[in-house]
Amino acid sequence: MEIKNLTKEDIFKMDYNQLIGLTKETNRIPGGKKTIFEILNKVFVNRDTKILEIGTSTGFTSIEISRLVKCAITSIDINQMSLDEAKNRALNEGFDNIKFIQADVNELPFQEGEFDLVIIGNVFSLMIDKERALKECRRVCKKTGFLAVVPLFYLENPSDELIQNVSNAIHVNITPYFKQDWINFFNLPGIEIFWSEDYSFDYMNDDIIKHFVKSILEREHLKELNKDAFEELKNKYTNYMYLFRENLSKMGFSIILLANIRLWEDPELYTSRKVKNEG
């Protein structure tokens, strides 16, 4: 549907992911450019690497990867409006190495072992059947490849009201996960956590939120909305930004690289950890 034909009721029914496509918001993997840089460096991505990105949204991750290493990338999302914006951005940047495909992570339209690296942002948090989604990602990844997952987790117990409000915003009934929950989830036969690093989110003050929302809503294409539809978008989008600020202030995320364990490899007996210099 064309933007000019959207009604107030259409906007009201949209979830946050649909609003991303409508507003053309730059939706990032948790940690943004720093996360992408860490992943690419840790797995030594080069021009011959074949990457699958799960949940590309408006294409930030695949475009940023292409800026650093112009390798073959396939990026999927279920939201066609977001994919259309991703295609336009890649085209404007001059990147012809990215294929944008509408697909579901639960039924990936790819061959077994097709990719060297599969990047999954916070997608697992939104999945009802997380095990099935992970199984599909493992299926299309080479035995010698890596899964790069970036799950969010709570650092403190969220209220039931907050969880319900976030669930309503994204139209998915979420269950609060803590770091150990993700460690347990990825603790599967034949797979290991090759490397991981933890982060927490910064708190954004009201002025930053207001400036961000204002810059989004002033975009030229949104002027095609009728007055009632725009007011609905303004109220809904603003409320979402404050809701997500509240939610993320209680959260962190991990960058995790998963790899297959070789059949002949014994468990590592004498493990080690990085020493932090003090003083």
Layout of secondary structure:
Blueprint: H1 8-13, H2 16-23, H3 32-42, E1 50-54, H4 60-68, E2 72-77, H5 80-93, E3 98-102, E4 115-120, H6 130-140, E5 141-149, E6 152-154, H7 160-170, H8 179-185, E7 191-200, H9 206-217, H10 227-248, E8 251-260
Parallel strand pairs: 1-2, 1-4, 2-3, 4-5
Antiparallel strand pairs: 5-8, 6-8, 7-8
Helix pairs in contact: 2-5, 3-4, 7-10, 9-10
Summarize the structure.
This protein is an alpha/beta fold and 279 residues long. The protein has ten helices and eight strands.
Number of helical regions: 10
Rounded to the nearest angstrom, the distance between the terminal CA atoms is 61 Å
* Major β-sheet profile: 8 strands, mixed
On the 0 to 100 scale, the average pLDDT is 95
- CATH fold field value: Rossmann fold
Number of domains: 1
Named CATH architecture:
3-Layer(aba) Sandwich
Looking at this structure, what is the CATH superfamily? Vaccinia Virus protein VP39
Low-pLDDT windows of residues = none
Radius of gyration: 20 Å
Task: Summarize the helix and strand pattern as letters.
Answer: HHHEHEHEEHEEHHEHHE
What percent of residues adopt helix (DSSP H or I)?
Answer: 25-40%
CATH class type: Alpha Beta
